[in-house]
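Entry:
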Amino acid sequence: MRPKCVRKFTLLDAMVLLVGFAIGLTFIRSVVLLRFSTTPLSSYEPFGVIVRMINMNKTHTPELAPEVLDRLRGYAGRFRDLFRHAPQFAWSGVYLRGLLEDGQRKSIEPMVARVPLPLDLAHIKDPEQALQQFVNQSPWDEQAVEKRYRSVMAAPLASPRGFFVIDDTGFPKQGRHSVGVQHQYCGPLGKKANCQVAVTVHYVSPEGHFPAALRLYLPESWTADPARLEAAKVPAPFRVEKTKGQIALELLDQVLSEGLLPGDVVITDAAYGVAQGFREGLAQRQLFYIAGVTSEMVVFTEEPRWVLPQPSAQGRPRTNPRLAEESPRPISLGELARRLPRRKVTWREGTQGKLSGKFSWVRVWPAQGWQRGACASATPLWLLIEEQADGKVQFALSNLPAKTSRLKAVRLWKSRWPVEQGYQQMKEELGLDHFEGRSWRGFHHHACLVMLAYGFLVLEQLRAKEVPAVPGEKSGEAPRITVPAIRRALQELLNPRAKPDCEYCNPHYHLIIGFIPRLTE
């Protein structure tokens, strides 16, 4: 016998359950669509409203007013005359926005799917093919765009205390057809792998830093193969085999010749510093350097004494000087590091406290080619030895003036971090390593537009740091405002997301949210 408190499951109950289930599915679908929908720049600009971001990490995410979109349009407009026609410039805006918006991939196909086209491109039937053509085949000059970009960035960042950091960055690849790809050392992987490598020049000043120039390195396997060069459409001036150091010097000459970025110091790691010709090239340009070297390099710890060649009555006369018998012999840097004491040096305040390490700073004389007297005329250099927390020891040679202090040298040497940080951000935030094309032009077009996107974020970062304090609030240590934080804040304006529980944002609110209370009554 059934208890009286339990009634029969009627047809009406079944209908209510089905309706509730259907409404639930509709609600979930609306949330998903609203969460991932894109909105054109001009369709959501609530002037005067501040977009507040949630602080997701230890850095500060600033508040950006919608006027930042006007600044983005103005920034892009500074390069308008460098594109041959209006549609070409319009596609540059689409690509730039695609790089700035959220997305796991910043290659062409997913960017076309995410970014709404402006009205003057709305008639394009195949936007993916059109964007492919703009990046890979369109003949706009990335060199001219990068020159204008450097002038824009120089206005707020150029400083007499500025300096240059030379490095390279790798792009892991599959296959052998992407321009410059070869089995070589790949920095992101920390080992040899199939990859492309680009040489970079980064400008660093007390006000900030930005990538100033970039060019792909072509290994001998490419420069010795005309068919591969032709297939990748490599321009004739870049088909000549050059070392990474030679490319770096050419990029540096290009940047310095413009007279926009002052600085007479170059910082680089051992990949470049071990080449004596590279260090001599910097010195010939009247530049100071701190260049990483390896522990195998040999030096004199005292000024060597040389015996000049004398006329010989018998046999072939000697043409090169030789090291005097009583002169001390050279020693490897690894052996010298084991003999020298090191002193603790604190070079700056980090987010977790003071950054410090143990360093030696001594004068040495280069001994490369000492057996044949090749270094007889070498002048003394500084040797910097750094002992890291894990016991690893790094070495660097420098031609800084003789009165340079240990602290100044250490601060310069440790200032390489903006390059590593900057290129990591350009890859993770802007898709520098997401390009999937194979041509020389396509690679450098993509890299140029990534630098433009990064430049805008840096300018907004500077602007956010200059925001005056709010009256009545306590003053304290200025928060860290990073480039990724600026991009996240900008994303909320480029692609605003409607709240599913907002009756003004969600068009399905009255159908779904408003019906639920009535359903449960």
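Confidence is low (pLDDT under 50) at residues 30-57, 508-521.
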